[in-house]
């Protein structure tokens, strides 16, 4: 039975390079997705921290200006 034309070494290298390029592209897409998720989580954490800080200021009975003055004195 004929097996077909045997590939040259150059053809084999080119196929392997194409496969690697496809894998790189796939992983790059996933990396970009993960970076976007991380950025979103960092923003959510920051908003949460600001909210907690604001609540503590309100609980203390001090105004925002009074808190700023306290920071300036330190």
Q: How would you briefly describe this protein structure?
A:
With 74 residues, the protein is mainly α. 84% of the residues lie in helices and 0% in strands.
Q: What key attributes describe this structure?
A:
mainly alpha, 2 helices, 84% helix, Flagellar export protein FliJ, coiled coil
Description of the structure:
This protein is mainly α and 74 residues long. The chain has a domain at 20-70. The chain contains 2 helices and no strands. The relative contact order is 0.05. The model has no long low-confidence stretch (mean pLDDT 92).
Low-confidence stretches: none
Termini distance? 88 Å
Radius of gyration: 29 Å
User: Fraction of residues in helices?
Assistant: over 70%
Strand-pairing-aware structural class: mainly alpha
Largest sheet: none
How are helices and strands ordered from N to C? HH
Organism: Caproicibacter fermentans
Keywords: Coiled coil
Protein name: Flagellar export protein FliJ
Coiled coil: 10-51
Sequence-ordered SSE layout with sheet pairings:
Blueprint: H1 9-60, H2 64-73
């Amino acid at each position: 039975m004929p097996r077909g034309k045997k590939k040259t070494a150059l053809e084999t290298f080119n196929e392997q390079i194409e496969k690697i390029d496809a894998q790189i592209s796939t992983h790059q897409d996933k990396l970009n997705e993960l970076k976007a998720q991380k950025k979103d989580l960092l923003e959510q954490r920051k908003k949460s921290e600001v909210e907690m800080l604001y609540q503590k200021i309100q609980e203390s009975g001090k105004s925002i200006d009074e808190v700023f003055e306290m920071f300036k004195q330190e």
